[in-house]
Amino acid sequence: MFNKFIGKRSSRKPSKDGNDVAGFTTSAAGPGTVTTGPGSGGVFNPASIRNGGPASGSATARGAGNLVSRSASLFSVQQPAAPPFPMKDKFPSAFTVNGIADAFVFENLPSFRDVPSSERQKLFIKKLNLCCLTFDFADPAKSAKEKEMKRQTLLELVEYVSSGTGKFTESAMEDCFKMISTNLFRSLPPSSRQNANGDSFDPEEEEPTMDPAWSHLQLVYEFLLRYVVSPETDAKVTKKYVDHSFVLRLLDLFDSEDPRERDYLKTILHRIYGKFMVHRPFIRKATNNIFYRFIFETEKHNGIGELLEILGSIINGFALPLKEEHKLFLVRALIPLHKPKCVALYHQQLSYCIIQFVEKDSKLADSVIRGLLKYWPLTNSQKEVLFLGEVEEILEATQPAEFQRCMIPLFRQICRCLNSSHFQVAERALFLWNNDHIVNLVAQNRHTILPLIFSAIETNANSHWNQAVHGLTLNVRRMFLEMDQGLFQECQEKFQEVVGKAKGAEEKRELTWQRLEAVAASKHSTAENISSAVV
Fold this sequence. Notes:
By secondary structure, the chain is an all-alpha fold. Helix content is 57%, strand content 0%. It contains 21 helices and no strands. α14 runs parallel beside α16.
């Protein structure tokens, strides 16, 4: 039956490609590291998917398999308005034209092992076309047999691609991407990550929404991943299908609420960036646009952390000296990502990207620190704690010359943090003096820094309510005293002078108020006497 719509296609042989990925790293340490496959450790594990579960080891893929989500009613897999290939007179009338299979009887195709090698490409194309049929997973019981048959067919396709049995013909490539596009590129359901009060989603309090169609989507993603990394895939030919439109549609899927889907997308986009060098500038630009819209318009996106993980690995591979384009990306996209209220959801990945830039070019430390000060939170204490931790990491990679350029505005802010009534903020600021590199930088510039923060240290030592902050303050005070006793005594004298002046001004103000009260009382008494005399 499928022979009718396979049709004749070009038989041009794909050209050879070396897949040069110079300046690109796939194993950067830290949060930017992206593995070869979600939970697969670089080796496809068909048994785990055949058993209905995710590839072993994936933190975001736990609880996968034949998943019927608790919120299945929220999901109805939407398809493009036009079918991916002509369907008229190709399928029984029970198959709907919008791409959703309904009571369609699947053809039971043989296994690849049961046909000779010469027939496997044709069987491969037939199975691809069979998997272009999609199902509505809102009702788990509907078309259950056909869903399972499609899952088994997808599993066979994944195993076939992973086996590397031979190069793919161009006609096979076309059918591959037809099947991938039909299954993956769909309208995502409306976000359920806001409650009735309008509060944002809290990943520590709420469970993420899982896509009920994951038993099929996982295998399609695994198929795409294995296809991209396969040595039999010719990048020069495949780029006809993995074009800008394909990349943009992949990026759109990063807004999925299902963390397992975002994990696969992260790995696949990372591999596309490594294999298709021609798309690298476009991928960076498209990612920038997602960040701009998130920062300045919506402040809502589920995949910012995953995109930053990819960029962390990409930044690690940037050649020196850094291009102006990359520096602009740091200033215009990465630093403003500190602005949204939900920065805690992706701060670890963002901080890793920032540190990568500073380690590659220490002259950027001044711009980064001043950018952080620009977006420093005023009323969000937990965000302040995150910023202080990031400042410590940046200062560890900062050289003395760059430190001197930004130390005055930086330690004015640190002084305000030391004076914070929120004990976690004050405590995190005091922890900076546990870092030997920062202590050395401060010691070299103590004549500038100590006068800026001395008042905060003395105030905490005398009156802070939290015992831990009080103890840490005394340790820092002792450190400065041992560092330069003369400077410490000079600052102490100035502080006492300022305190004395403030106390005198307060006493003068109190006396002024007492005189005003006395005058007001005397006038009130006079008015009462006059009133009684008139009566």
